[in-house]
Amino acid sequence: MKERMDLDKAEPRIYKAMNEAEKQLSAFGLDTKLVHLVKLRASQINGCGYCVNLHAMDARKIGETEQRLFAVSAWWETPFFSEAERAALKLAEEVTQISDGGVSDETFQTALGHFGETVVAQLIFAATVTNSWNRLAISMHMMAE
Fold first, then answer.
1. Distance (Å, rounded) from C-alpha 61 to C-alpha 108?
2. Closest CA to 4 of 144, 137, 145, 135
3. Residues 44-103: pLDDT tens digits?
4. How far apart are CA 64 and CA 54, in angstroms?
5. What Pfam family is a match, any one (predicted)?
6. Chain segment 26-44, per-residue pLDDT in tens
7. What are the boundaries of each domain within the chain?
8. At what angle do helices 83-96 and 105-140 cross, to 10 degrees?
9. Which CATH fold topology does 30-140 show?
10. CA distance linking residue 122 with residue 91, whole number of Å
11. Whole-angstrom Cα distance, residue 75 to residue 67?
């Protein structure tokens, strides 16, 4: 598969807007490993090879284990994730698959119990930004490096 076009060259304001969203996400001060797990899981669900590769590499750089990275696609079947991480991953999945019924009350309440309103809002934003990046990358056929 060949990349369709250079999106940044075609319309640089798109990356500018997306990068501003990433800057805001970074400014929240969320646990970086948790953010990478959320980004990785959303990208897996969306089938964005470019983003899966990127988020796995970024997570490894900050000390995430390969075992957990390999297992994130089936996090519910492994003992490698804390209850809070499980709540964040479930929330990210339901945000990513929003057309399948939205975010359930159970998922939302579980996340609230672990994180509180501010962090839940920030995690939803993290999943939303990642989904936007995924849609751009998939539409352009961006290739993992």
1. 30
2. 137
3. 999 999 999 999 999 999 999 999 999 999 999 999 999 999 999 999 999 999 999 999
4. 13
5. CMD
6. 999 999 999 999 999 999 9
7. 30-140
8. 60
9. AhpD-like (1.20.1290)
10. 11
11. 11
